[in-house]
Amino acid sequence: LIIPLEILIIVLPVPVIDDVKSLRALVNPEISRIRNIGIMAHIDAGKTTTTERMLYYAGYTRALGDVDDGDTVTDFMAQERERGITIQSAAVSFDWKSHRINLIDTPGHVDFTLEVERALRVLDGAVAVFDASAGVEAQTLTVWRQAEKHHIPCVCFLNKMDKPAANFCIESIRKKLKANPVLLQIPVGSGKNFTGVVDLLTSRKLMWKMKSMRDDGRVFEVKALDRSDDPDLLQVVSDARTALIEQVADLDDEFAELLLTDFSENFDAIPSNKLQEAVRRVTLARKGVPVLCGSSLRNKGVQPLLDAITAYLPAPNERHHDVVRWYKDDLCALAFKVLHDKQRGPLVFLRIYSGTLKPQTALHNINRNSTERMSRLLVPFADQHVEIPSMTAGNIALTVGLKQTVTGDTIVSSKASAAAAAHRAQNDNEAGKRSRECASVILSGVEVPDPVFFCTIEPPSMSKQADLENVLNCLQREDPSLKVRLDPDSGQTILCGMGELHIEIIHDRIRREYGIETHLGPLQVAYRETVLHEASASDTLDRTVGERRHVVTVELAVRPVDITSVGGSCELAFTEELEGQLSAEMKEAVENGVHSSFLQGPLLGYPLQGVSTLIQCVTIEPGTSPAMVSACVSRCMLKALRLAGGQVLEPVMSLEVTVGEDHLSSVLGDLAQRRGTVRDIQSRHDNKVLLATVPLAEMMGYSTVLRTLTSGNATFSLELDTYEAMNPQEQNTLLKRLSGLL
Fold it and tell me: Name one GO molecular function term (predicted).
């Protein structure tokens, strides 16, 4: 057979990398070599792509996954792969240079902010990923605030350095995040000519010389800078290294003393290991954040980021938790996430703070006051898990068999272990009350945000109602930001969520994963209510049930408080005289009555916000049950709230729109019709960034409208800013509309 030369194709064998590592061979190092980290960022900054590269270079995947192709390890849900976004956090464990890294890839969309919150609650460090062409964006601010709330040291990674508009957004980090960036690398080249970085600590150049688009970036060149290099680059590196040394000396006294005593004549002579140790101390003290750069999609700069994670972020034993020390070597763990598996049942993620976890053991849940048997112990790797015989302190584990445990529960080895820890806490704090003992040995849980949208949900037929209720219970256990309640008037099931996308995803999951074709009612905004004036009320309940007479009299006062001063919550207080008179049981009954009233305002039944209640007098006849006390308090609260006058509060969102200048006027005109207030218009390369506040009620279907106005050339992000009082005209319109619905 003769083949013409013109069509001859020579197929060369593709080099195959070594077999991927098995999770069974995962090292179990001492606690100082463990890193529990999260990847956090704004939407589309490159979190999942960066995670994918980390797993590949660590040897745990055979090929580089791509978000656009829907084949990444951590985005394993069908909805994630279809939409190209991360919806739920995913945990993976892998080794890097004798360290064990437990990593959680978190979502960047505001609707799934709880996933970031509960991940950061149990992590020791975080990598904040930035789109180098955009700098600090709306959701970057949100996740950064969450990390600060949990006092988590961070490393910054300026991704997408290969984009034409990429720049070194150090000032953006300094001004918008109020952080102190510590620059550790200088990029070599920019845009499509970005080829590597210079490590300022070692003055070495790391170059990725890609020979083809299929080059995976596993191999890169490391060489010391010398006189043959570009003089401009040498000058930039020299200036940047001097600035780094001076900055670290200002932040770390030990390093400053070393400089002045041993290297006062020549700061450049300071050994790189001494500078690295100082940067680590600065990072752990949260006085500064190391900044690195690269391009994950182009396979450049990820290996140095992994080195930075092990070098600068803390080990579990470098983070101090007061509660944990009372358990000593006994088991103490926090449940921070629950998944439902059709074969295994509930899978509970635990962060182990002390002790050792082993399968086939009984565990005590302090929050539920229950004991359950854990049947199996797994290492999490996205949706692929490997069974292991034990897990030590400092790690993240996945357990099978804990059917009652929910997010935020504290898990210990036994009731006796909890009692022993409580005894140590009592001795340490000289606490006298038993209730305080119990509270002191429980780890703080996960803060769950309030929902902002709700709608009705109905099964296809009444025969599916029980199945739907079971599904919703499972989903609520997985996702505490999803709330389900029953409307007392209509009997309909109400689904409450964090946004349009959140509810849409839940609806889709019910159909795909559980096979129930549900119907959603129109999406409505979850308003709040408050009071306008101070008002007092009293009420007496006198009721005979069987042979038992219940008599209670309550006097209380309500008043409005500044919403921002209490973070939007409601306050409850007792007079000093009452504090000493009421028994613990009756005080709890009064609190239950007040809190039940906080959940349903007098105007439209929305939860109350910014209301302070003072219990002035409670007279209880002997034999009166706590339930009757709660009922009387609720009735008295309703009287006081009606006398105080009601006011509807609506959620107001921070809106950020990135749009070309030619479409800016159309977007501004549309915002004016939505009762929007423009705060600022900034320039970002060839685009304009519009910052505004808009009532959430006016943002229904905004993505479709914006796409039409700008021919698809705009992006936007929303974040809950505050709750504001509706003007009288809007409030009357809302009252009439809802009355019509009822």
Answer: GTPase activity
Taking only the tens place, the pLDDT of each residue in 351-361 is 999 999 999 99
Contact 568, 610 (CB under 8 A): yes
160 labelled ligand-binding: yes
Q: Does the annotation list 423 as a binding residue? A: no
For each of the domains in the chain, give its residue range(s) and CATH number, in order of start. Answer: 31-318 (3.40.50.300), 322-431 (2.40.30.10), 453-525 (3.30.70.870), 530-644 (3.30.230.10), 649-739 (3.30.70.240)
Q: How confident is the model at residue 627 (pLDDT cuts 50, 70, 90)?
A: very high
State the Rg of the chain over Cα. 29
Is 106 annotated as a binding-site member?
A: yes
Strand pairing report for 99-105 and 34-41: parallel
Known binder of ligand: residue 162?
yes
Q: What's this model's pTM, rounded to 2 decimal places?
A: 0.83
Cα separation, 144 vs 152, in Å, equals 9
97 is in an annotated binding site: no
262 annotated ligand-binding residue? no
Q: List, in order, residues 6 or more apart from 456 with CB less than 8 Å away.
A: 487, 492, 493, 494, 495, 520, 521
- CA-CA distance, 45 to 50, in Å (whole number)? 9
CA-angle at 615, arms to 613 and 621, nearest 5° = 145
